[in-house]
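Researcher: We plan to redesign the surface later, but first we want a full-length starting point. Tokens attached.
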């Protein structure tokens, strides 16, 4: 009979207990979020209306774990088109009330609605008629009674085994903050381009770069008429250093392109006596100004080319408005 491995049994027991705790947390959160969805009513729309009407900033405040959630809500607002700032309630009582102006609105978080440190901010809001949106679980609390708009959180059980540590309650606050941010985005018709403008760094910013942000335009375009001599076309190609020249008809419409590869393929021809149209590749591949640069880069990699002339789909003339080189994409951090 094999000896019993106590360490293996203990490890398995710990794993089982850990997973049970994790699932209890998720079950509590799921139940709480379902209750929150059911509880939402016209007060939510009133809150969105109040936040949209702000001419200054949304000042978010909360103490302890509610404050940490408030910082995240303020950051989400600010990054999605709603100017916002977090003010610590204790610091507000020692001078930071000066950060709250009559053009602002206050969004205050407190699970029970009786956080003592919020009192000075509440008084300040009432004194200067600053719109106050309160988030708490007790409609009869000091915070929600003072609020112009009361967002009532459903009373739910904390996932903490002692029922004390803020877990489920902070999840509710966080999700409600996200809900407000998304509703505001939709009301503002906040676009991907606007989002990119607020996230110029990192992978988010790079993913939203448009062709129009990177392309060369105006005097930088290597263009010649299709009826020009090859010598004149190559002169334009050499002047602009893109390794190509675009050929246009008499109306300026792009009809062809000459690249280094075209010249190599026609090396046995008397190039000095040739016309540009005799060497060009017709119907060149193009990009559009509003296309994602990452998409254009992928297209260049797929077709094994290094540049694309750029068209504006809104321009019915179909004249080239720019040129995008693969090096432009790589310099911008696209891969």
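Model: Full-length starting sequence:
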């Amino acid at each position: 009979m094999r000896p019993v491995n106590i360490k293996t049994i203990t490890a398995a027991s710990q794993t089982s207990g850990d997973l049970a705790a994790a699932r209890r947390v998720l079950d509590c959160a799921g139940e709480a979020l379902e209750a929150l969805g059911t509880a939402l009513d016209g007060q939510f729309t009133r809150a969105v209306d109040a936040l949209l009407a702000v001419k200054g900033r949304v000042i978010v405040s909360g103490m302890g774990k509610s404050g940490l959630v408030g910082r995240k809500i303020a950051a989400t607002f600010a990054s999605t088109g709603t100017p916002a700032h977090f003010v610590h309630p204790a610091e507000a009582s020692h001078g930071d009330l000066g950060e709250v102006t009559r053009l602002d609105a206050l969004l205050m978080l407190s699970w029970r609605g009786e956080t003592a440190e919020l009192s000075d901010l509440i008084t300040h809001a009432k004194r200067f008629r600053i719109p106050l949106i309160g988030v708490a679980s007790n409609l009869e609390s000091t915070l929600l009674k003072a609020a112009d708009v009361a967002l009532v959180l459903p009373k739910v059980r904390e996932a903490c085994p002692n029922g004390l540590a803020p877990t489920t309650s902070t999840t509710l606050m966080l999700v409600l903050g996200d809900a407000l941010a998304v509703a505001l985005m939709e009301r503002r018709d906040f676009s991907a381009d606007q989002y990119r403008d607020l996230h110029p760094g990192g992978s988010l910013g790079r993913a939203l770069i448009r062709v129009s942000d990177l392309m060369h335009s105006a005097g930088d375009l290597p263009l010649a008429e299709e009826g020009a001599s090859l010598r004149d076309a190559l002169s334009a190609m050499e002047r602009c250093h893109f390794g190509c020249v675009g050929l246009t008809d008499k109306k300026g419409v792009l009809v062809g392109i000459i690249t280094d590869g075209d010249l190599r393929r026609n090396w046995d021809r008397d190039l000095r006596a040739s016309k540009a149209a005799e060497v060009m590749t017709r119907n060149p591949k193009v990009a559009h100004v509003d296309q994602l640069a990452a998409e254009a880069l992928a297209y260049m990699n797929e077709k094994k080319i290094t540049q694309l002339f750029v068209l504006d789909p809104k321009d019915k003339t179909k004249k080239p408005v720019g040129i995008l080189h693969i090096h432009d994409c790589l310099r911008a951090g696209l891969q």
